[in-house]
Design a protein that fits this description.
With 127 residues, the chain is an alpha+beta fold. It folds into 2 domains: 1-64, no CATH class; 65-127. The chain is built from 2 helices and 6 strands; from the N terminus they run ββββββαα. The strands form 2 sheets. The protein has a 4-stranded antiparallel sheet with strand order 2-1-5-6, with no helix packed on it. Helix 1 runs antiparallel to helix 2. The radius of gyration is 19 Å and the shape is elongated.
C-alpha cells in the first residue's frame, strides 16, 4: 500500500476470503483522502508476481473525504486535532485542569474519528 506525495508505505498481509476460494483480502482504514497504489508482489506457486494498481478514472476510485457524509457536525481531521494539541501544549506551562480537560476532549474526538473512519471503510467495502 502506497499513498501520498511523501510515498508513505504500509505492508499488508493477504488473508484468504471466507467462502471464496482463490480470493484474498487485506484490510486498512485510509486516514487521508487521495490516490492509493496497491503493489502486490511475491510468488504464487512457482510464478513471480509483481503488479501495481493505482486509483484512477479507469481503475478503482480514489479515497474521498468523509466530509460529505458527516452529519450533523463535521469531525476535525487528524491534522486539525494535532494542531490543537500543539497549540494547547505551547500555552501550557506545566499543565492545568483546563489543559487536561481539553486534551481529554480532543482524545474523545479522535476516537470518534476512528469509529467514523471504520464505518466509512465498512460501508465502502459493502458497496
Amino acid at each position: 500500500m502506497i499513498v501520498g506525495g511523501g510515498a508513505k508505505k504500509m505492508d499488508l498481509a493477504l488473508d484468504p476470503s471466507f467462502g471464496q476460494p482463490s480470493s484474498y483480502e487485506a484490510h486498512f482504514i485510509p486516514t487521508i483522502s487521495g490516490d492509493y497504489t496497491y503493489h502486490i508482489f511475491g510468488k504464487v506457486q512457482d510464478k513471480d508476481v509483481d503488479e501495481s494498481f493505482t486509483s484512477s478514472p479507469e481503475g478503482f476510485d480514489s479515497v474521498d473525504s468523509p466530509d460529505d457524509l458527516e452529519f450533523p457536525d463535521k469531525v476535525p481531521t487528524n491534522a486539525q486535532l494535532q494542531s490543537s494539541i500543539t497549540a494547547l501544549e505551547s500555552k501550557s506551562s506545566g499543565g492545568s485542569d483546563d489543559t487536561a480537560r481539553a486534551l481529554g476532549i480532543i482524545g474523545t474526538i479522535a476516537g470518534v474519528i476512528g469509529v467514523a473512519a471504520g464505518g466509512v471503510a465498512l460501508a465502502s467495502r459493502r458497496s
